[in-house]
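Please predict the structure of the following assembly.
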Amino acid sequence: MIIRLIIFSIIWMIFAQGQLNSLIVGLPAIVLASVISCRLADKNVGSFSLVGFLKFSVFFVKESFKGGLDIARRVYSKDLDIDPKYVVYESTLPTRFQRLFLSCCISLLPGTLTASLIGKTVIIHSLINAENVKQEVAQCEQVIANMFPAATDGKYVEPVS
Amino acid sequence: MIILDVLTVILLVVGLVFFFAGSIGLLRFPDLMCRVHALTKADNIGLACISLAVAIYSNDWLIGLKIIFVWLFILATSSLMSFIIARRINMSNKIISGDSR
């Protein structure tokens, strides 16, 4: 809780450009964000690797840039160069939080968009070759797994649709 | 100073090219799912370029950091929102086609 309070306070102070009088609004917002964040946090996540997070950040920014370039190339090409199809991917990530995290990340990878997440099955809408999609997602999955090295397989809760 | 101004203009133009790609993708792509691809990915990189341009132009590290943070937050929410929209489209398609799985 204290770590979350510190992180949210730093973020607020950056947004408010260090103005202390902004804390009239900021303080309740920081406390509320910390409480909600604690309530929603997955208890099975286990440890969090800062090095893993930095590696993930670099990977995510790089891949999302590649994704943007890829889509712009297709949009501006004469024949669109797309082959839309659904790809079913079985995730090996142990917790639901990690699989949700993966689903969100897939949406910014080149040519992929998560259409559904049912248990450990991720249904991906793809604009590119299915094998390439599976390779890319597996790579992303590995980076996420490194970020939460000691995650345990907690009680699985079926998503509410 | 002139170099920074030129860099700002280049980044703004590149950003606009990507935003334009997102809008053209909306018109050119054949279905809703493909259009979500175009909007999220192209707009994201467009916003990155424009954020970087504004950060350089502001000439103040705190404002620059703030703008980069804004971009990172939008990056996170845009990946989540595109997943939610795609999931909703997928569910609607199943309802229309009568697939109750």
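Helices of chain B lie at 2-28, 32-58, 61-97. The radius of gyration of chain B is 18 Å.
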